[in-house]
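Figure caption, in words: inputs first, then the predicted bound structure.
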Amino acid sequence: MLFESFNLGSITLQSRVVMAPMTRSRAINNIPNALMAEYYGQRNSAGLIITEGTAPSPNALGYPRIPGAFSPEQTEGWKKVANAVHQGGAKIFMQLMHTGRVGHPLNLPEGAEVVGTNTTPVEGEMYTDQEGPKSYPSARLMTESDIQTVIQSYVTSAKNAIEAGFDGVELHGANGYLIEQFLNANVNNLGNSYNGDHQARAKFALEVAQAVINAIGAERTGIRLSPYGVFNNTGAFDGVTEAYEYLAKELGKLNLAYIHIVDHSAMGAPEVPRSVKEKIRDAFGGTIIISGGYDKARAEQDLADGLGHLVAFGRPFIANPDLVYRMKVGAEMQQPDFDTFYTPGEKGYTDYPTLEEAETAE
Ligand SMILES: Cc1cc2nc3c(=O)[nH]c(=O)nc-3n(C[C@H](O)[C@H](O)[C@H](O)COP(=O)(O)O)c2cc1C
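Bound structure (flavin mononucleotide present):
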């Protein structure tokens, strides 16, 4: 099933293989460039490529060298990426990621600030190009007016993505970034109408989704969610399953293109119980992308079992630009080099050979 085509809204994917969103920190000055176009282009035999987390506004640029989608230069850069991906028949969605409290002022452009739903700093340190690892700062608590401004920034960046030739956008509602900061009871301390029971905490995600849908259409708008995720001081909270079931149901009413479920148990996080994934799938009623620790055999099994409709692969796509071909022929997989996940330049980025290139070199 993995290599069969799939209709996602009004677009047809050439297979059910999705490249998972992965921050690679090659966007010097936060502008997508030719190297990034080459990297994504090398992987254009996928069914769908979801880009790395991309900032809808300057405050959202919490990490070094991540791209944005709010300036004309960024839109021009993204056009090259979309074009390179479409040349191989793949479709491409831009992941819109607002880092919220998970950021450092040194990583932000002048005038921008770290804002979020909680003033307690995230535990641990964040890398900065200027001074290496630094403790997280205390974020400024977002006001209702900040929230409206941020919602507008998602709308503008989604429109920019479409202008750049993208097939849609994925709202990053996972891994402890801004949308999850609202959803997660452990980190939402806002003290306004976006804080309280699970309905109040879901309000921001639903308002962002609705606003983006109004701008570019429901069939072009997906969302990524990580129930039970622990990244960036999140973690499960009382009523977590009901909260995500409610959210999935509401997102279903909006006819969102898909929900992309994260399970980072292959990376040491607690496993998302299968029953929770099934509840989200059933409450939503639309397309589900499953992700986390997949290889071809597990992907085929979970597709056959109906757990999801599409399967996202992350690290295997870093090290194997021709992942689809390698899976098809049962070739050996190259292993990714962790040291170059976030370093600038082509090393560990565009220099992983395809099977053909590796064989020619032997
Ligand atoms: C280098 C790296 C960067 C990542 N960046 C993002 C990101 O920007 N947005 C996101 O939603 N997930 C991100 N992830 C998580 C992946 O999308 C994926 O869920 C994870 O790698 C598990 O899938 P895998 O076992 O197939 O690698 C990242 C993972 C890696 C390894």
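The mean pLDDT is 97.
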